[in-house]
Amino acid sequence: MFSIKRRVEQLFLNDYTKAQKRHAEAEGSGAQEPTLCIPPQGNSTVTGVGVSTASDLGDARLPVVDYNNISQIPNILTKFPAIYLANHGLPPAPFEYARTLLTLPESAKAKLRDPKKSTVCGYNNAKASGREWWDYNPSQDILGPPNNEEFKEYTTKFFNKSIEILHNICRQFNLKEQLIPQEVFDEAGFSTMRYLRYSPDVIDEGTENETSGVAYNSVLNSRRDGDDGEALPHIEAHTDLDILTLITATEPSGLYVWNRRGQVVSAPPIDGTVLVMAGDLMPFFTSKPGMSPLEQHEGVEAIGEETVLPTAHTVVVPRNAGERYSVAVFLRPRRDMVLDKRVVARGGKEVNEETAFWWLATEKLHVEGRKCFLATAL
User: Fold this and answer.
1) d(CA 297, CA 107)
2) Which of 82, 168, 196, 255 lies at a CB distance of 3.0 to 4.6 Å from 277, suitable for a disulfide?
3) Where is this region: Disordered (predicted)?
4) What DSSP line would sit under 128-186, residue for residue?
5) What DSSP character marks residue 68?
6) Are 265 and 228 in contact (CB under 8 A)?
7) Which region holds residue 14: left if phi is over 0, alpha if psi is between -120 and 50, else beta?
8) 316 with 256: CB under 8 angstroms?
9) Higher pLDDT, 102 or 3
10) Residues 258, 263, 269, 273: is their CA dihedral positive or negative?
11) How far apart are CA 237 and CA 211, in angstroms?
């Protein structure tokens, strides 16, 4: 039986095994390989209703979906790595609150760290990568600026409205059959909201640099003006350990996603929209009926055209572009929610095996950081 590390690798490699074969065939025939596709930068606007596109780049573009037409999202997410959601009703993104908190003196930010050293609660940083973040978890007291009730009130308001939107998207998957478990909707679970800052001011080149890998370097090199080795604020290619992610950001964007054909698509902020991406749990809910995406022999068959794959993405802030702030809301279930049930052979007997969310989260830590094999296979 495969180790969980190999199973997670297989989960992310399923679609790209086929993609690599197509790339090899294209190379043999002299066809042009996929290139980095960058939509026009700046503040685009959304016009009309329904579904439109964020750029005019053929297949390498992301759709814009009106919130009144969210019933289309399940089908769209099987074809595109992410969507822009318009007319969503969210209040303005709390970028100013993020800036206020993340530019506090180091001594003040140190007091916002979680006593248990959680990386998804309170303040954390990755100075080698030029980023720092602060997480709100509704199950705990806010580790935020002291005596700032406005900060707490707005943070909670934005989080609750975002979770409501993500829950509503999930309900669209259940219109025909129960794909996403009901307990996802019953409570906030382990959902969190993150204020994130990318800035050259955060970079400390004396700390260990966590980045490596073809996927990251291919994007990084495409954004460099030269090759003097200057560090840029970034995060490695990865997928989110959740069901869905809602994110909005300031310029400069620096956000890229991979589509199913191995193309890298820029995802700059668009006025009036938020970006919605799929997380690692979606293949569990949308794989072929009766099949597990973690099964050793059935894994490939379990991932079909109707399966929503996790969105592989990275952020690389262009040189001399200044700071980037983003607000991300991660929809997650309770830690003990069972994601997967299957019968496996163990000790000469067939036994029922269950995969809980906390177990998957723990095991993913052993898969070369947070890297997503969906991205690094390119």
Assistant:
1) 52
2) 82
3) 23-42
4) GGTEEEEEE-TTS---SSTT-HHHHHHHHHHHHHHHHHHHHHHHHHTTTS--S-THHHH
5) G
6) no
7) alpha
8) yes
9) 102
10) negative
11) 9
Listing DSSP states for 334-372 in one string gives -TT-EEEEEEEEETTEEEEEEEEHHHHHHHHTTTTTTB-
Beta strand 51-53 pairing with 234-238: unpaired
d(CA 62, CA 81): 8
pTM, two decimal places: 0.81
Residues spanned by the domain of 23 = 4-376
C-alpha to C-alpha distance for 210 and 235, rounded to whole angstroms: 9
DSSP summary character for residue 206: T
Q: Is the dihedral of CA 84, 86, 90, 93 positive or negative?
A: positive
Q: Which residue carries 């989080």 as its tokens?
A: 159
Nearest CA among 269, 285, 371, 277 for reference residue 326: 269
Q: What would the DSSP string read from start to end of 279-326?
A: -TTHHHHHSSTT--TT-TTTHHHHS-TTPPPP--EEEEPPTT---EEE
What's the pLDDT tens digit per position in 329-369?
999 999 999 988 877 777 788 888 888 998 888 877 766 54
- Number of helices (H), then strands (E), in the chain: 11, 15
Helices 357-364 and 4-28: crossing angle, nearest 10°?
Answer: 60
- Please count the other Cβ atoms lying within 10 Å of the Cβ belonging to residue 274: 24
Cα separation, 49 vs 52, in Å, equals 8
Per DSSP, the three-state class of 19 is: helix
Residue in this structure with the two tokens 């890229």, named with its chain if needed: 256
Q: Which structure tokens are listed for 68?
A: 């009144």
pLDDT in tens, 249-294: 999 888 999 887 778 889 999 999 999 999 999 999 998 887 877 7
Task: Indicate the SS3 state at residue 232.
Answer: coil
Task: Give the count of domains, the chain.
Answer: 1
**How many residues comprise the chain?**
378
Helix (H, G, I), strand (E, B) or coil at 208: coil
CA distance 70 to 50: 9
CATH number for the domain harbouring residue 347: 2.60.120.330
